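To illustrate the input format used throughout this study, we show a single complete record. The first block contains the structure-token representation of the backbone; no residue identities are included at this stage. The design step must infer an amino acid for every position from geometry alone.
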């Protein structure tokens, strides 16, 4: 997902869950900051490097792809952007190394989603935002894994965009190109992707890089033949999934606020979204590179307040100049990030999978 959903849509969901304007902004800022908090940034403000929640392109280009380097990459991407759905998934007649990667495939409503939401309960709003980023990405990034793997994450010529037409869909073959100087061409279904590399563990095969930003667009419907799925056709309906992601965030944040005693997977607060469902569908299904303006307008209509644009360094001076860094926004965010990462790595480790390395569960 992109800033449009992680920041503006998350604000809307938080407000509908019962948070006030300022609280919703903090949650939304935290959710978007997950996509920005690199080691390079943390070093700049002298914050703990193990709180990194993403890696910038230059960091990835310099990343090692030996077992230790791959564990480092997997710790970040599987924890925050490609949360595994089933760490104990079954797969017949395959090697242990392949099975480990297969079990890291992302998807919604897995056990780790519940643990992610439960971990944020009773914690600062920054942790709520982190949890909402992770939850939302399980919908957009489903079927890809947060570890480099050509076998798991590759795309091929059989990749079609589906356009509603009458009672069915019209198909158009998608073209993936590596041309970062130009935006995706939505009119012609041409999307920028990572460079094809035959090396199984190349960083070009991380996450949905081989499909570019395509999975991050709320309007898109597509089908393809994943190798991990025995080349059986898989259809991904983002408009439907994004509505579920939005309503699940509302439900999850109501649980965190104490409205519910337990958090259940595959449960959504459609009742809170229902009065605005036509507008929500309209935003989600509109073909555009970024839906920030539409989500922002919706959020401002909900709260009657101005939603400031996301400014990456908004809280940097507070952190740098504070003598009590633990109680600053960055301090609370980094504690939450370290705790969440520790929880995910521990779960992967407990399952017998060594791809994320080893850790002790962090405490907050």
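Output of the design step:
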């Amino acid at each position: 997902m992109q800033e449009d959903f992680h920041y503006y849509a998350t604000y809307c969901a938080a407000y509908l869950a019962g948070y006030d304007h300022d609280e919703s902004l903090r949650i939304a800022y935290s959710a978007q900051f997950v996509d920005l908090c690199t080691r390079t940034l943390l070093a700049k403000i002298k914050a703990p490097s193990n709180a990194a929640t993403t890696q910038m392109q230059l960091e990835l280009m310099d990343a090692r792809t030996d077992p230790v380097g791959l564990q480092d990459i997997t710790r970040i991407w599987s924890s925050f952007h490609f949360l595994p759905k089933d760490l104990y998934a079954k797969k017949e007649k395959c090697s242990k190394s392949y099975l480990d990667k297969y079990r890291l495939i992302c998807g919604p409503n897995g056990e780790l989603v519940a643990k992610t939401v439960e971990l944020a309960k009773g914690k600062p709003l920054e942790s709520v935002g982190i949890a909402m980023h992770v939850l939302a990405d399980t919908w957009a990034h489903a079927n890809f894994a947060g570890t480099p793997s050509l076998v798991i994450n590759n795309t091929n010529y059989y990749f079609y965009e589906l356009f509603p037409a009458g009672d069915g869909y019209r198909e158009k073959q998608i073209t993936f190109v590596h041309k970062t100087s130009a935006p995706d061409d939505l009119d012609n279904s041409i999307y920028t992707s990572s460079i094809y590399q035959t090396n199984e563990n190349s960083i070009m095969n991380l996450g949905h890089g081989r499909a570019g930003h395509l999975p991050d667009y709320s309007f898109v419907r597509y089908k393809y033949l994943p190798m991990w799925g025995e080349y059986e056709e898989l259809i991904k309906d983002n408009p439907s999934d994004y509505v579920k992601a939005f309503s699940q965030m509302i439900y999850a944040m109501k649980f965190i606020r104490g409205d519910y005693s337990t958090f259940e997977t595959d449960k959504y607060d459609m009742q809170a979204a229902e009065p605005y469902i036509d507008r929500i569908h309209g935003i989600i299904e509109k073909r555009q590179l970024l839906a920030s303006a539409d989500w922002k307008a919706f959020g401002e209509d909900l709260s009657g307040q101005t939603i400031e644009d996301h400014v990456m360094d908004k809280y940097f001076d507070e952190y740098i100049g504070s003598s009590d860094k633990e109680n600053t926004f960055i301090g609370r965010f980094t504690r939450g990030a370290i705790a969440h990462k520790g929880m995910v790595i521990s779960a992967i480790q407990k399952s017998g999978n060594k791809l994320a390395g080893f850790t002790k569960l962090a405490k907050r």
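Structural context for interpreting the output: The chain is about 45% helix and 5% strand. Residues 8 and 296 are 5 Å apart (CA to CA).
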